[in-house]
Amino acid sequence: MPEAVYADLSRCIACHACELACERENESAKIFVQVVRGLAAVPVSCRQCETPLCAAVCPGEALNYRDSRLEYDAEKCTGCRLCVLACPFGTAELRAGVVERCDLCQGKEIPACVATCPSGALFCAEAENLGEDIRTRRAERIKKALGNPEPAGRRVNR
Amino acid sequence: MKESTRTLAPEEEKCIGCRACTSACPEKLITFSEEEKLRSISFPANCSSDCELCALACPEKAISFIFPDEGEKSRVSLESQTLNFELVPCQKCGTAFATRRELEKVRTAISEKIPLPSTGGFWMELCPGCRQAAFREKQAKTIIQARKF
């Protein structure tokens, strides 16, 4: 199962820092935060589907799913926009003839949005470990709240 | 001489109106325009003789080239061609976002990968923006319920 950026919605404060971080890193934002009915902020980015429908419709083989990773070859892309029409989440976009979607900041240890998120809402995980990850995160938060406060300084996102 | 009179022949029955050719053409001779519920793609009658980029880009292989002196002169119109496509409106916001044939092609390609309900997957009826909104709404459901009280 491929990794994807998930959000703990109870922590997202709609500060849009992830969008800015993505823009800084990838020239244009590929994660979008919006507030639903004034009550919940939800960031949405590419879901890194296990069966990517965008790749299923690609006629030029520009989008390829290999080793549980979606690869994009801009040279082979013809700009037909069928991938944009296939994506169930509306997270693939075509800008200036190039398909843009989250690639988890390839080459970086953690995606820029996850590293930036000031409220610690975003995290990178595999879908299978999601439940376990959430449990660990919550437990650690409680442990932190019960123990001595950490000295001020750089906070580590998990 | 022979090459300069080459005609660009898009096949109306095959073309799905995806605009891949418009972005492929290096001379920007293939153009498209959108008005409310109609997308028109205009093909020039003639263009550079040794370029086949539009035909290569076409996902439906709908573009071919005809050389009039190959005995087909009578059948070939030497005027530019315009193909019109009716656009499907988004079920939620009403924006016309794709042609019927585009959606059909996507639907067939997807149904080979995952089983689709006979209606063809609810998201197919929505424009990309509304798909994202629908997903967001679904995700927010539980948290909104908790925060309402």
Written account of the structure:
The complex is a heterodimer of chains A (158) and B (149). Chain A has 158 residues and is α+β, with helices and mostly antiparallel strands. Chain A has a domain at 3-48 and 102-146: Alpha-Beta Plaits, CATH 3.30.70.20. Helices cover 27% and strands 22% of the residues of chain A. In chain A, β6 and β7 form a beta hairpin. Chain B is α+β, with helices and mostly antiparallel strands and 149 residues long. A 4-stranded antiparallel sheet of chain B has the order 2-3-5-6. In chain B, strands 1-4 form a two-stranded antiparallel sheet. The mean pLDDT of chain B is 82. The chains are: A alpha+beta (158), B alpha+beta (149). Chains A and B meet through β2, β3, α2 and α3 of A and α1, α3 and α4 of B.
List keywords for this structure.
heterodimer, A: 158 residues, alpha+beta, Alpha-Beta Plaits, two-stranded antiparallel ribbon, 5 helices, 22% strand, elongated, B: 149 residues
Describe the structure concisely.
The complex is a heterodimer of chains A (158) and B (149). With 158 residues, chain A is α+β, with helices and mostly antiparallel strands.
What is this structure's SSE topology?
The complex is a heterodimer of chains A (158) and B (149).
Chain A (H helix, E strand, L loop, with lengths): L2 E5 L9 H10 L5 E5 L3 E5 L8 H5 L5 E4 L2 E4 L9 H5 L6 E3 L2 E3 L11 H5 L5 E5 L3 H17 L12
Antiparallel strand pairs in A: 1-8, 2-3, 4-5, 6-7
Chain B lengths: L6 E4 L9 H5 L6 E5 L2 E6 L9 H5 L5 E4 L14 E9 L6 E4 H14 L14 H20 L2
Antiparallel strand pairs in B: 1-4, 2-3, 3-5, 5-6
Query: Reading side by side through the largest sheet of chain A, how are the strands ordered?
Result: 1-8
Strand line-up across the major sheet of chain B: 2-3-5-6
Q: How many alpha or pi helices of chain B? A: 4
CATH class group of the largest domain in chain B: Alpha Beta
Overall, the morphology of chain B is elongated
The total domain count of chain B is 2
Helix content range of chain A: 25-40%
Order of helices and strands of chain B: EHEEHEEEHH
Largest interface: A-B, 32 and 38 residues
Distance linking N and C termini of chain B: 79 Å
How much of the sequence of chain A is in beta strands?
Answer: 15-25%
What's the overall geometry of chain A?
elongated
